[in-house]
Amino acid sequence: MELDTIAAISTPLGEGAIAIVRLSGEDAIQIADKLFKAPSNKRLTMVDSHTIHYGHIIDPATNAVVEEVMVSLMRGPKTFTREDVVEINCHGGIVTVNRVLQLIIQNGARLAEPGEFTKRAFLNGRIDLSQAEAVMDLIRAKTDRAMNVALGQMEGKLSKLVQRLRQEILETLAHVEVNIDYPEYDDVEEMTHQMLIEKASFVKDEISKLLQTSQQGKILREGLSTVIIGRPNVGKSSLLNSLVQENKAIVTDIPGTTRDVIEEYVNVRGVPLRLVDTAGIRETEDIVERIGVERSRKVLKEADLILLVLNFHEKLSEEDIQLFEAVKGMDIIVIVNKTDLEKRIDLDKVKELANGRPVVTTSLLEEQGIDELEEAISALFFKGNVQSGDLTYVSNSRHIALLTAAKTSIEDALVGIDAGVPIDIVQIDLTRCWEQLGEIIGDAVHESLIDQLFSQFCLGK
Ligand code: GDP
Ligand code: ZN
């Protein structure tokens, strides 16, 4: 594949005086060589791979020294993109770094698109599609836990599992093939039937397990959509402020979104909360007044978590009870606030209305009960799920769609086997499942590949 040479500033994560300009592609070394001057006058085109060189970047038009640099040179294919890669470490500020990048562009490289280095790694077969997607997720990861999911996926956890399942299906298909080729052997057919059920059930169970993690995975990636509701003056703004202050807000506004609902991200014990409509709470105090009944109903409906705030110092009102009605069947945490004041609320009645869902008492004024609230949020999110580092989360919607389709296919196969339909029909379902799983890791599907694999499996052929 012929790919042009790309370049970009790839500043390392975190603060640092050093910025790196990275080039990748066929002409990467040649372009860098045009601009680089070492004290010894050595040429980058002549040096060994995976070596680092001290020198200066010179503007070839004027011969002026632009920057003092360290240049790392790596020839493909032992690089991230599998292409020739040059990394220029600059010490100066952003202005000089940009100047270096400009010179590189002027001398034949193209500015890389976001994620394009990763895309190349995929195109050149260095990583599979799910790993490439994980790199993208990693860039966007909002909490440490989300980062771990992305890292795990990048290391190929999901890929390995998917490959294992595909292997199972392939072996099964090979046995089916044997059965078709040697129909006269009864015991082969026996085994095939038994094995088909076993293998197909195994694959189905594994896919189901993966899908079960998908909701959590999605939430880890996108945040738990959270809405704070309650009558005026119960402490909604205070709650929002306390959550934002205690837990570093991660994103205050999302560029590029056109929705008029303002969101704020906080990280509560590794659970990213996306606090929806914080403006409604901050400004008008009334979500319904601000965005209208229809929209507020929609916001409530789409929420993953509702924080319903009540006043400890006041009797339950008709409005409070209506709020409970509005969030029937949803994940809610009831917060009874202002415990520093005299108790006037009927807590037993509150618990009855909460109907088994958590009730936390707080005094936001005196910063009491916030730990318990955070504990409740975390417990709700990790409901009954042991937090295992081994768990492979599926968090990407494309993967979820493909896994769902693959599950349907394998279920179809199982139904077919059970009903005793001709084996070549079952074969079609199994093959489809194999293909759908393959799409997760970006495998092109070739009939010839299947043929080739069959030829290896088939006995005595
Ligand atoms: P909102 O209308 O629901 O957003 O309520 P606010 O957060 O704006 O709070 C209304 C008033 O109650 C403010 O004067 C707060 O300082 C006060 N407040 C909030 N939490 C507490 C608390 O735990 N105890 C007491 N005594 N006052 C509180
Ligand atoms: Zn308020």
Automatic annotation (TrEMBL):
> For GTP, which residues are the binding ones?
233-238, 252-258, 277-280
Similarity comment: Belongs to the TRAFAC class TrmE-Era-EngA-EngB-Septin-like GTPase superfamily. TrmE GTPase family.
Note the PANTHER family from the entry.
TRNA MODIFICATION GTPASE GTPBP3, TRNA MODIFICATION GTPASE GTPBP3, MITOCHONDRIAL
Q: What class of enzyme is it?
A: hydrolase
Keywords for the protein's UniProt record, in alphabetical order: Cytoplasm, GTP-binding, Hydrolase, Magnesium, Metal-binding, Nucleotide-binding, Potassium, tRNA processing
Please name one Pfam family that this protein belongs to: MnmE_helical
Q: How is the cofactor bound?
A: Binds 1 potassium ion per subunit.
Write down the SUPFAM superfamilies for this protein, in alphabetical order: P-loop containing nucleoside triphosphate hydrolases
- Describe the subunit structure: Homodimer. Heterotetramer of two MnmE and two MnmG subunits.
State the compartments where it is located.
Answer: Cytoplasm
Q: Where is the TrmE-type G domain?
A: 223-382
- This chain belongs to which protein, by name? tRNA modification GTPase MnmE
Name the positions where Mg(2+) binds: S237, T258
Residues the entry annotates as binding (6S)-5-formyl-5,6,7,8-tetrahydrofolate: R22, E87, R126, K461
Annotated EC: 3.6.-.-
- Entry-linked CDD domains: trmE (cd04164), TrmE_N (cd14858)
- The protein's role, per its UniProt record: Exhibits a very high intrinsic GTPase hydrolysis rate. Involved in the addition of a carboxymethylaminomethyl (cmnm) group at the wobble position (U34) of certain tRNAs, forming tRNA-cmnm(5)s(2)U34.
InterPro entries under this entry?
G_TrmE, GTP-bd, GTP-bd_TrmE_N, GTPase_MnmE, MnmE_dom2, MnmE_helical, P-loop_NTPase, Small_GTP-bd
Q: Does the keyword Magnesium apply?
A: yes
Co-factor requirement: K(+)
